[in-house]
Amino acid sequence: MKAYWITQQGEHMQLDLRDSDKPAPKAGEILIQVKAASLNRGEFIAGHGLHKGAGGRPAGQEAAGLVAALGEGVTKFKVGDRVMGRSPGAYAEFSVINAAEAIPVPENMKWEEAGSIPLTFLVTYDMLVQQGRLKADEWLLITGVTSGVGVASLLTAKAIGAKVIGTSGSKAKLDQLKALGLDVPVVTRGGGIYDAVMGATDKQGVNLVVNNVGGSVFAECIKSLSFQGRLATVGYLDRQMHAEIDIDALHAKRLTLFGVSNKLRTTPQRAETVAGFTRDWLPLFASGKLKVVIDKAYPFDQLPAAQAHMESDAQIGKIVVTM
Question: What is the pTM of this model?
Answer without folding.
Answer: 0.92
